[in-house]
């Protein structure tokens, strides 16, 4: 890798001498550069999403293989998808250095393990139907790099989200996304701008994929799981609007009979709504 921008010195000096007001203003100024950095790589993101949608449509799955702050953020994105969109929990999965079950421990020493990620992918029945996306700020993390290299050897499609140009991980990705956010406010602290950019991209990937898979009608979460009173109330009112139902109790009963707003709408008008 020619230039590890994520390790370059901060543009700011003597931070310990600055006031709270000065620090927050400078951090906010740096944060404003994140969205434009993501915008520059939208074509790459679009190409990655296109293949993810195709893989899932044909019975495949998405596996994130990640480490560090960005890897942990991918977990937060993935765990909400079954509830928000009513999809199977194994549709989007994360193989995290140190284990998803030990997320809060931040076991960053496990980032150097070159075997664990592929072993976990194998345990989850990885195949050519799936796609594996590596997550690494530096673009060099051995845990991620080894997994993608093995996937390429096995002819499994790969993508990546990294924050340095010309990285070894990007070289192993068929669909690389290199989002360059520049030096961090605290030198090398990629939990800041870099992780923010990656979280924005995770949101784009999951949301756009779910829309393309037909899990949204108009702009509504019509497959949200009815897990509590707040969500059930929201879903009932959603069904009233979309289904032209005037009575709350009637809509709620229909909702429970069908399990989701989308299924309820389908029962009302099979020709107008997707299955």
Automatic annotation (TrEMBL):
<dbReference type="InterPro" id="IPR046348">
    <property type="entry name" value="SIS_dom_sf"/>
</dbReference>
<keyword id="KW-0119">Carbohydrate metabolism</keyword>
<protein>
    <submittedName>
        <fullName>N-acetylmuramic acid 6-phosphate etherase</fullName>
    </submittedName>
</protein>
<feature type="domain" description="SIS">
    <location>
        <begin position="52"/>
        <end position="215"/>
    </location>
</feature>
<dbReference type="InterPro" id="IPR040190">
    <property type="entry name" value="MURQ/GCKR"/>
</dbReference>
<dbReference type="InterPro" id="IPR001347">
    <property type="entry name" value="SIS_dom"/>
</dbReference>
<dbReference type="Pfam" id="PF22645">
    <property type="entry name" value="GKRP_SIS_N"/>
</dbReference>
<dbReference type="InterPro" id="IPR005488">
    <property type="entry name" value="Etherase_MurQ"/>
</dbReference>
<keyword id="KW-0456">Lyase</keyword>
